[in-house]
Prior knowledge:
The complex is a heterodimer. Chain A is mainly β. Chain A has one helix spanning 26-29, and strands at 9-12, 18-23, 35-40, 47-50, 64-69, 72-77, 86-93, 99-101, 105-109.
Amino acid sequence: QSALTQPASVSGSPGQSITISCTGTSSDFDSYNYVSWYQQYPGKAPQLMIYEVSNRPSGVSNRFSGSKSGNTASLTISGLQAEDEADYYCSSYTSSSTLVFGGGTKLTVL
Amino acid sequence: EVQLVESGGGLVQPGRSLRLSCTSSGFTFGDFAMSWVRQAPGKGLEWVGFIRSKTYGGTTQYAASVKGRFTISRDDSKSIASLQMNSLKTEDTAVYYCTRGFRNFAYWGQGTLVTVSS
């Protein structure tokens, strides 16, 4: 099971919007909508930011949004803030009842 | 408040075994699948596997990289999920996280470091 493909890094200035892509195969995403996104600060456990493609857990800012088209899922962060600087990972529950993560994207706020 | 606390990490030689435990509280443990996710130093997240709740048979799924070497089990009476790791390799060196669920993970433990080295 290969990892989902994410850009290694993205950057943006405060107030701007950025989008992180997450590309897989048809078997990774299949007809399921179990795509999730996690934020991770150095030395900390990941935090769920988006689940089932576009749903935000309670307490997550509405500046974070998710979408999916075909075999590519996307995380968009609007109104970028310094505190958004972190690593971001996508994941997908697959048709084989396994789960796969993306390689991770380091977000730098300029 | 949901809490997941991993224990059992440490330094182990290649080829040896180690057992990690995840003690849970704040929710009805038996109602949920439990998963393990690991992260090698400086690397990304890697799914290890999960165990379904007894309602769904308590069956397990594993990543190809650990299948046949790692075993996930659960003790619902003690709210503990365990990860038995056999035939450890240097590439198994990682922080191991316990998480609740199997499709997405809203709750994570703090992680426990496993170092496989001679």
